[in-house]
Design a protein that fits this description.
The complex is a heterodimer of chains A (446) and B (178). Chain A has 446 residues and is an alpha/beta fold. Chain A has helices at residues 14-26, 37-46, 63-73, 88-96, 109-140, 150-163, 179-188, 207-215, 232-235, 251-263, 289-295, 300-306, 323-337, 347-355, 361-375, 400-414, 419-426, 430-440; strands spanning 6-10, 30-34, 51-55, 78-83, 101-104, 169-172, 197-201, 216-217, 229-230, 240-244, 265-267, 274-276, 280-285, 309-312, 344-345, 380-381. Chain A has 18 helices and 16 strands. Chain B has helices at residues 16-30, 56-67, 119-137, 156-161, 168-177, and strands at 5-10, 33-36, 47-48, 53-55, 72-78, 82-84, 87-90, 92-94, 100-104. Chain B has 178 residues and is α/β, with parallel strands linked by helices. Classes of the chains: A alpha/beta (446), B alpha/beta (178).
Chain lengths: 446, 178
């Protein structure tokens, strides 16, 4: 027994309370007694018991009513009801109300031992289940949101503060920043975590397809609708629905969505039965919804309904200090998935990765690492494995001088700082190249 | 603990040799001197005609108030069928960490279960039950070790399975309480 099981005995007869009390105390349990349902309920408000053994027939509130109230207080309580006057009706009613077992007084000592042993097994299993769930959650939680920078810490803090609530969330940020990961983290830290997280990529579907996707359809609703189909809102019952690229939905869908969010009810396409579903909405967009509202392309009422909480996921260029952690994470991830021994990255390659601006954000960095592992030597990622030269024109370049400097540096690196070959590639003479190197203060990277 | 001895109080007729055997076993297990003192109770007051059994809870309280003292552990020995209100029968009962306990050999004999009578069995089982209940008065709770005398027994077969001795951990617990 890992912990001392606690038992609450509820019976109006003192002799029953006493005898059960003594019996359980000798068994090493923690035991408390209550002489009626009201006392028991007030005890349960302040203290929790693993097992509640309650008589059905008591003056005032009877055991069945008490059972119902205990279940409202704590639905997983183990309540065993006892009665001296067994009838099938009361037994059925007790079990329907959620009783763990039903026994007739007096019972054999062996029956009592079995009863408590079964209840203890149930408690142990529930506890084990809870622990396993905690472990699963901690594995899935936020481990994909890599980084130690202040911007990513703020995102994690935002996730923590909104996860437990039921509020709608809009996640904003550029493409590839990890908005869906944030949505997953919110869901897996919320009380809805054991129900589905249903994702819908609104931008990938036409208006009619999206309607059918979200609300479901009845057989024959349109050509090809051969069977009834559940919509995503229905599938997300008790869970979370993640609407990605929410800014792309049509004005008609905006109205429909607003109505569903307000009433939590909808009708399948081609159907007439109202279906209700309890879901939480998380949306994501890479566009500025507020300016869309100002321009009249996104409904203001829907915006306020969705945007209860806003989480901004910063682009990778705003949290460059996270790049080494991300690189390490992606190397590990792809080496594992490709069944390769763990690889490393040389410092020049890492420095180059840190200098890059990533218009495609974390997704772009991830793709680069995946590619480098595929084409590399299987031991160390080096500069030549990185496709940076093709995407050098990053966002920070504004002037022609910047562009020239970056391009020359790239070509020099490409030819290992062989001036003749680099000059030939740039179609300038060597003197001009030396002048440019001096002008821009270029140096070979270590 | 200022305990001086353990007192066994038979209520009703018990053979001297039978009682001597029990006393020796108790003395061997707890290393306290064991007295045997005759007790007198009008058992009809504790009889429940509806159940045709004797109320163990009431008997225990009576033994505790009439025969116990703080310097003694007192065991009432009975030969009648005992019950507590919630259970159909009991072999014995005691106050945990208290001064007294009771035990009955009524349900310990083979013939109650359709087996050939054997007094040796009754004596062995009763010793174990008396030691078990006394163990409770010393604060010991039920033990999971199958051979430990403090293991809970709901059938006579369970009693036969265990020994008349405390296991190492119960012995440790017992010593710590002295």
């Amino acid at each position: 027994m890992t912990k001392k099981i606690s038992i609450l005995i509820v019976d109006d007869e003192e002799s029953v309370r006493d005898s059960l009390y003594n019996w359980f105390i000798e068994d090493g349990y923690r035991v408390e007694c209550a002489e009626n349902a009201r006392i028991a309920l007030s005890m349960l408000e302040n203290e929790s018991f693993d097992i509640i053994l309650a008589d059905i027939k008591m003056p005032g509130m009877d055991g069945l009513e008490m059972l119902r109230r205990i279940k409202l207080l704590k639905s997983d309580s183990i309540v065993i009801v006892m009665t001296a006057f067994a009838t099938v009706d009361t037994a059925v009613q007790a079990l329907k109300n959620g009783a763990f077992d039903y026994v007739t007084k007096p019972f054999d000592p062996d029956d009592l031992s079995h009863l408590i042993r079964n209840a203890s097994t149930q408690i142990a299993l529930t506890e084990e289940n809870e622990n396993l769930k905690k472990k699963v959650v901690s594995l899935e939680n936020v481990e994909d949101l890599i980084g130690k920078s202040e911007p990513i810490k703020k995102v994690l803090k935002d996730i923590e503060s909104v996860a437990q609530s039921n509020s709608s969330v809009v996640i904003t940020g550029e493409s590839g920043t990890g908005k869906e990961l944030v949505a997953r983290a919110i869901h897996s830290n919320s009380p809805r975590k054991f129900f589905p997280l249903v994702s819908v990529h609104c931008g990938a579907l036409t208006e009619s397809l999206l309607e059918s996707e979200l609300f479901g359809h009845e057989k024959g609703a349109f050509t090809g609708a051969m069977y009834n189909r559940k919509g995503r809102f229905e599938m997300a019952d008790n869970g979370t629905i993640f609407l990605d690229e929410i800014a792309t939905i049509s004005s008609k869908m905006q109205i429909d969505l607003l109505r569903v969010l307000e009433s939590k009810t909808f009708v399948r396409v081609g159907g007439n039965k109202e279906i209700s579903s309890d879901f939480r909405v998380i949306c994501a967009t890479n566009r500025d919804l507020k300016s869309m509202v100002e321009k009249g392309t996104f409904r203001e009422d829907l915006f306020y309904r969705l945007n209860v909480v806003n989480i901004y996921v910063p682009p990778l260029r705003e949290r460059k200090e996270d790049i080494p952690f991300l690189v390490e994470y992606f190397i590990k991830k792809y080496c594992t998935s490709m069944n390769r021994p763990p690889e490393t990255i040389d410092s020049a390659a890492l420095t180059r990765l840190e200098e890059f601006d990533y218009p495609g954000n974390v997704r772009e960095l991830e793709n680069m690492i995946e590619r480098a592992i595929v084409i590399g030597n299987g031991k160390k990622i080096t500069l030549k494995d990185l496709p940076l030269e093709k995407t050098v024109y990053s966002n920070s370049i504004e002037s022609l001088d910047d562009l020239e400097k970056t391009h020359i540096l790239q070509i020099l690196n490409k030819y290992g700082w062989n001036i003749s070959r680099a000059a030939k590639a740039l179609k300038v003479d060597r003197v001009t190249l030396y002048n440019k190197i001096s002008k821009y203060g270029l140096k070979p990277s270590v | 603990m200022d305990l001086q001895n353990i007192t066994l109080i038979p209520f009703g007729y018990f053979e001297d040799d039978f009682l001597k055997d029990i006393a020796e076993a108790v003395n061997h297990e707890f290393l306290f001197s064991v007295n045997i003192r005759e007790g007198h109770l009008d058992l009809s007051e504790f009889y429940d005609p509806g159940r045709r059994q004797y109320n163990g809870t009431k008997l225990l309280k009576e033994v505790d108030s009439m025969y116990s003292s703080d310097s003694n552990k007192t065991m009432g020995l009975f030969s009648v069928d005992l019950f507590i209100p919630i259970l159909t029968y009991i072999f014995g009962q005691a106050f945990l960490n208290g001064r007294s306990g009771i035990a009955s050999h009524y349900r310990l004999s083979n013939e109650r279960y359709g087996i050939v009578s054997d007094n040796k069995f009754v004596s062995d089982r009763f010793k174990k039950e008396v030691i078990h209940e006394l163990g409770h008065t010393f604060g010991l709770v039920h033990c999971h070790i199958s051979t430990c005398v403090m293991r809970a027994s709901t059938y006579v077969e369970d009693i036969d399975q265990k020994s008349a001795n405390l296991c190492i951990s119960c012995r440790k617990e017992f010593n710590s309480k002295l």
